């Protein structure tokens, strides 16, 4: 037996993709079906173009989303929750910058009563003033906690600097903005943004014969008549307008560590460089064996963790390095991050490292589609950008074919310290 | 409306050196998950050298006797891994494409055989863990609450310190010779459980285990002899001021161990109080009385007798005493009135969903089978729901009466520096 050398590695040639089926309910709602899994459960995502970029007032989108299950005629929020929970179902809402959703996970045997209730909640939400006041007060309380976290401060100020103080992706909301929201703001937003013409449904589970007819029955008709006309003429996201200042310091006297972010606005998934840059970013800071982890954590012990991301938003995106480090070493850590970026653009990476990253990425791709809900998680953002799983097979091809020279050229183009915005929050001077 | 979760098939085999192997075949995945549970946690630490089990977990990635680096070859094989340490055990898990399975055996068996024990790796990982300590426990509002609560609620049992360690100095004080001693007394085939799940057959798994783990000698693992926690006889109270936006309270009561029926009763009681948006504490204290901005009830789930905890942040301008009084009333209701049938059915249905949804991918399956083997029997995974469903409302009532007594309670009140 040879304990010194790694057993023979075989690379994976092809992804085992289950291609989702696209269809429409009779009222035109796009439905995607992922017929996968072995357990008698299903997940239904109702996705709306109703993220914060579409709001007129700060917090309008996220509070509308959060308040949807908080009351319909005849049922309080507590009673609605009790019914979902009685069936052992999970009803979740979430809203981000581009999209907002309602997602249910349920045992298949309870799908029908759960969908009956979901339809009511989605169509008849009344946004009671009293429940809103509680949710607002609690939101303000958790914002106060966030204000004392160096990571939150660094993230907020980075977004502001990268996108612009009045851009929907960059604006910083304050407690006072939360307090100004009224129930009417939420009803208005609900009426325009949560209609059938602004909705997509993603259904995941092993028994399509069960859930497709139920979705048609409860969401394929009768929705428009319920008063939701939907179909906003949403404007495109405004042009990115960085603040201009590249070095931003957020002093937080009582903190014991400093969080920093280094990055810049970039582009969305459809940009020709997006996939290749994702691969280059993996080498820089996208996995445990990355250059940044090896240097800043495993070599210097400055941090518990450091990572970098190429993040996609609708029609745009950004690159960012983020970490929290000892208060006495943050400046050195930033110097090292910049050095690692520069080095990737100047020196061709060793072939052994490139092969390792390629194999790791292919393993990640396999992991990311292993299981019905994982498939749904991967498919949804692609679908919302009018892409499909061909995007993943293309990515697999790029991983297999990209060369170290291409990575060097790309890194030189995008990982340039002089283009970066650096935000540090911690016990530092402004 | 109940139906038992379907029985999960597995094969169990024990090597001559004492290593327990559990295999679950799941051909719906093209990957394999490997989980190794070592029966050593923070409770096995010297009280003067706490945080050691967790620091050691970090060192397990710093190279083994024949392999200078753990992560790089695993990445080469398309794999990914992680690990965690708790008060009771240390758990390592990885996934990789099935055709590269042997790399996982090669890597994990070498670090069970012997670590590289380098001064350099120890020095760096001490710094990393100290930054972890700062990031997660000192640099977050209320971050040290659990450190304080454990020390308040326990007087003798090693659950009185958290896995990260009682203080940073303990981590700074760790020496390489202590690392070596720790390894040879706890990291042994006869003190570990190896679980595999995914695209792998039992025969193949056992043959590969014999090949790679079989030659590792059994080791003398010291008998665990932990001080029992004496019965708490009077209420405990502590106030802490810190840089937080407003007050929070942490209440803890001593409860039964993981295998006792009391565990299941208390788990359900905590669900009645706070599982979901229709649970009592949220509905009554957050929404109706507006005393808390959030509140949660949970059990620690430890192997030895653990804690039932209620923690919450007060709403703006609410005095902690008033909040705790309202919590007390909720607990009194549990003692005086049996939980209604529909409410009990609700928490049981949620439990069923949770058990099912938490056992759907190969990593969770491998981790769960390993955990239940560690508790004594992997088949228990499929029996859990039945135990929960056998608990009656009357049992919950008497469990509540036994648990929520004044003398069994520890209270930590966290206040902001400016006294608010």
Report on this structure.
The complex is a heterodimer of chains A (430) and B (420). Chain A is 43% helix and 19% strand. Chain A has 430 residues and is an alpha+beta fold. Chain A has two domains: 21-226, Cytochrome Bc1 Complex, Chain A, domain 1 (2-Layer Sandwich); 247-426, Cytochrome Bc1 Complex, Chain A, domain 1, CATH 3.30.830.10. In chain A, the strands form three sheets. Chain A has a six-stranded mixed β-sheet with strand order 1-2-8-3-7-6, with helices on both faces. In chain A, strands 9-13-10-12-11 form a five-stranded mixed β-sheet, sandwiched between helices. In chain A, strands 4-5 form a two-stranded antiparallel ribbon. In chain A, α11 (330-346) packs across α15 (404-414) and α12 (351-368) runs antiparallel to α14. Chain A is globular and about 65 Å long. Chain A starts with 20 loop residues before the first strand and ends with a strand. By secondary structure, chain B is α+β, with helices and mostly antiparallel strands. Chain B folds into two domains: 11-212, Cytochrome Bc1 Complex, Chain A, domain 1, CATH 3.30.830; 236-416, 2-Layer Sandwich (Cytochrome Bc1 Complex, Chain A, domain 1), CATH 3.30.830.10. Chain B has helices at 52-59, 71-76, 101-113, 119-138, 145-153, 168-172, 176-186, 202-212, 261-274, 280-288, 320-336, 341-357, 362-375, 380-390, 393-403; strands spanning 11-14, 20-25, 31-38, 80-85, 90-97, 192-198, 236-242, 248-254, 292-299, 307-314, 409-416. At the A-B interface, α2, β7, α4, α10 and β12 of A face α2, β5, α3, α4 and α10 of B.
Question: What is the alpha-carbon Rg of chain B in Å?
Answer: 23 Å
Q: Given the helix and strand composition of chain A, which structural class is it?
A: alpha+beta
Largest interface: A-B, 76 and 78 residues
Please identify, by name, the CATH architecture of the largest domain in chain B. 2-Layer Sandwich
Major sheet description of chain A: 6 strands, mixed
The stretches of 5 or more residues of chain B where confidence is low (pLDDT under 50) are none
- Pattern of helices and strands of chain B: EEEHHEEHHHHHEHEEHHEEHHHHHE
Percent of residues in β-strands of chain B: 15-25%
Flag low-confidence runs of chain A: 226-233
Distance between the termini of chain B: 48 Å
CATH topology of the largest domain in chain B: Cytochrome Bc1 Complex, Chain A, domain 1
């Amino acid at each position: 037996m040879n304990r010194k050398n790694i057993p023979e590695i075989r690379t994976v040639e092809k992804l085992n993709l289950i291609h989702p089926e696209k269809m429409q309910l009779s009222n035109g709602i796009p439905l995607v079906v992922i017929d996968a899994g072995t357990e008698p459960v299903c997940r239904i995502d109702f996705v709306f173009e109703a993220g914060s970029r579409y709001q007129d007032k700060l917090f309008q989108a996220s509070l509308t989303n959060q308040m949807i299950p908080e009351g319909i005629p005849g049922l309080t929020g507590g009673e609605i929750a009790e019914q979902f929970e009685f069936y052992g179902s999970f009803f979740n809402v979430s809203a981000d910058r581009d999209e907002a959703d309602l997602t249910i996970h349920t045992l298949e045997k309870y799908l029908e009563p759960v969908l009956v209730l979901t339809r009511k909640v989605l169509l008849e939400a009344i946004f009671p003033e009293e429940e809103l006041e509680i949710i607002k007060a609690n939101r303000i309380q958790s914002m106060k906690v966030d204000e004392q976290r160096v990571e939150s401060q660094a993230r907020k100020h980075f977004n502001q600097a990268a996108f612009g103080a009045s851009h929907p992706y960059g604006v910083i909301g304050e407690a006072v903005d939360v307090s100004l929201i009224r129930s009417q703001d939420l009803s208005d937003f609900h009426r325009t943004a949560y209609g059938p013409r602004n909705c997509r449904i993603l259904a995941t589970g092993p028994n399509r014969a069960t859930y497709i007819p139920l979705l048609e029955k409860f969401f394929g008709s009768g929705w428009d008549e319920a008063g939701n006309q939907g179909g906003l003429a949403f404007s495109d996201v405004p042009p990115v307008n960085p603040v201009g200042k590249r070095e931003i310091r957020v002093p937080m006297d009582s903190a014991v560590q400093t969080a920093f972010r280094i990055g810049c606005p970039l582009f969305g998934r459809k940009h020709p460089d997006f996939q290749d840059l994702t691969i280059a970013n993996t080498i820089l800071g996208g996995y445990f064996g990355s250059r940044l982890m090896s240097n800043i954590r495993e070599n210097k012990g400055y941090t518990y963790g450091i990572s970098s991301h190429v993040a996609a938003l609708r029609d745009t995106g950004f690159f960012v390095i983020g970490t929290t480090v000892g208060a006495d070493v943050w400046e050195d850590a930033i110097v090292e991050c910049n050095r690692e970026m520069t080095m990737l653009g100047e020196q061709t990476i060793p072939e052994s490292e490139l092969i390792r990253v390629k194999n790791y990425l292919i393993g990640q791709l396999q992991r990311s589609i292993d299981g019905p809900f994982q498939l749904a998680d991967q498919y949804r953002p692609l679908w919302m950008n009018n892409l499909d799983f061909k995007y993943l097979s293309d990515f697999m091809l790029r991983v297999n074919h990209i060369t170290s020279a291409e990575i060097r050229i790309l890194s030189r183009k995008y990982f340039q310290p002089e283009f970066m915005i650096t935000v540090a929050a911690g016990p530092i001077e402004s | 409306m109940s139906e038992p979760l379907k029985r999960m098939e597995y094969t169990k085999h024990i090597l001559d050196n004492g290593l327990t192997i559990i295999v679950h075949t799941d051909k719906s995945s093209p990957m394999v998950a490997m989980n190794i549970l070592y029966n050593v946690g923070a409770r096995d630490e010297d009280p003067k050298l706490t945080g050691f089990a967790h620091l050691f977990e970090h060192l397990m990635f710093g190279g083994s006797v024949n392999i200078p680096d753990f992560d790089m070859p695993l990445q080469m094989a398309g794999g990914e891994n992680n690990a965690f340490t708790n008060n009771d055990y240390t758990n390592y898990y990885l996934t990789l494409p099935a055709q590269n399975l042997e790399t996982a055996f090669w890597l994990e068996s070498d670090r069970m055989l012997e670590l590289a024990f380098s001064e350099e790796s120890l020095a760096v990982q001490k710094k990393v863990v100290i930054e972890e300590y700062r990031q997660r426990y000192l640099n977050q509002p209320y971050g040290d609450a659990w450190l304080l609560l454990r020390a308040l609620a326990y007087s003798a049992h090693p659950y009185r310190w958290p896995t990260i360690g009682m203080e940073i100095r303990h981590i700074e004080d760790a020496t390489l010779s202590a690392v070596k001693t720790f390894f040879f007394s706890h990291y042994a085939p006869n003190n570990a459980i190896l679980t595999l799940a995914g695209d792998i057959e039992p025969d193949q798994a056992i043959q590969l285990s014999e090949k790679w783990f079989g030659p590792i000698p059994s080791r003398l693992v010291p008998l665990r002899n932990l001080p029992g926690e004496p019965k708490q006889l009077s209420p405990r109270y502590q106030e802490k001021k810190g840089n937080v936006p407003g007050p929070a309270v942490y209440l803890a009561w001593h409860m039964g161990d993981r295998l006792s029926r009391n565990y299941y009763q208390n788990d359900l009681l905590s669900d009645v109080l706070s599982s979901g948006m229709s649970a009592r504490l949220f509905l009554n204290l957050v929404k109706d009385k507006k005393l808390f901005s959030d509140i949660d009830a949970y059990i620690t789930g430890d192997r030895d007798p653990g804690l039932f905890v209620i923690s919450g942040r007060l709403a703006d301008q609410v005095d902690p005493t008033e909040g705790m009084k309202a919590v007390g009333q909720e607990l009194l209701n549990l003692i005086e009135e049996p939980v209604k049938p529909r409410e009990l059915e609700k928490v049981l249905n949620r439990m069923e969903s949770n058990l099912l949804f938490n056992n759907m991918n190969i990593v969770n399956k491998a981790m769960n089978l390993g955990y239940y083997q560690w508790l004594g029997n992997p088949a228990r995974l499929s029996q859990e729901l039945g135990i929960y469903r056998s608990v009656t409302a009357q049992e919950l009532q008497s469990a509540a009466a036994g648990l929520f007594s004044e003398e069994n309670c520890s209270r930590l009140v966290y206040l902001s520096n400016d006294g608010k």
